Amino acid sequence: MEETQSKKVIILYILKILKEFSDEEHPITQSDIIAKLKDYGIDCDRKTITRNINYLIDYGFNIVRNLGGGCYFINDKYDTSEITFLVDCLYSYPAISQRQAQNLIDKLTSEVSKYERLKFKNIYKSNELTRTDNKQIFYNIDQINFAIANDKQISFIYNKYNKNKKLVPRKEERYIINPYFMINSKGKYFLVCNKDNYDNLSNYRIDYITSVEVLDTKRKPIIKTTGNEKGINPINYANEHIYMMSGPTITSKVKLSSERMINDVIDWFGKSVNFIEKENEIFAEITVNEQALIYWALQYGENVEIVEPKATREKLVNYVEDILTKYKK
Description:
The protein has four domains: 3-73, Winged helix-like DNA-binding domain superfamily/Winged helix DNA-binding domain (Arc Repressor Mutant, subunit A, Orthogonal Bundle), CATH 1.10.10; 80-128; 137-232, no CATH class; 249-327, Alpha-Beta Plaits, CATH 3.30.70. The protein contains eleven helices and twelve strands. It has helices at residues 3-21, 30-39, 46-59, 80-91, 98-108, 114-119, 137-149, 234-240, 261-269, 290-300, 310-327; strands at 63-65, 71-73, 152-161, 167-169, 175-185, 188-195, 202-205, 209-218, 249-256, 274-278, 281-289, 304-308.
């Protein structure tokens, strides 16, 4: 590197070395910094190192000088526990691909030393998850956000997995959609929207969407969809659609086997649930998507009982009878 150019950028390389090769447990000496600068084709003396580190400290970088010699960089954007939590979230999030997860983790950990990065290797690896193959998910989210902010319709191809485990279009024609908001449910992204020429709301997996286009046409207002004439609260919608199924929302009464089930009910449906104790029995009043309630009740088996509405209770009975018929063959 030319001498004039190296003088201009030396401070940046010193900062890079401090970030990469130092932390509280691993202070770096001036001699080590000089040696590592040579890897970048830069020669300098101790006075130059001292002067540039002073510039960095004066500018606001959190660099600490050790009494025993050396100095180290402190990442004050996140502490280690925060980075560990975020890395764990990315590793365990199936809605993005393995490569996308690793790229985000690399960016997140770029501000910590190589010694700190070793700690994150102890978190289980991203390729152990069943992950999406859709590389367009970030682009999809960006385009959908743009459309929502600008009150526009979108179109896209909606896909499914075939027997060869490849994403293929469900049908040839593009879906024309009025987008309203997105929900992260159980580690998967869903778009809550209205399919053009219909009046109800639908939920589409964003990782199944490809080839998003923002259209020039204005989207249908959500108050024009069935049941949402007064608008909609996305948080309530998420709590009512625990499996993100379409269909009617009902107010139900569910009998719980014991007080221990209260935690599970709140985990699934939030704190808007009303609990009633009557004659030593506990009931939960839940506003929820009907199909989701049936699936949830099947999941919890003997621990819950749908009491009302009667029609929903009868649908559950029919489900159970169909299951028994299959297994008694």
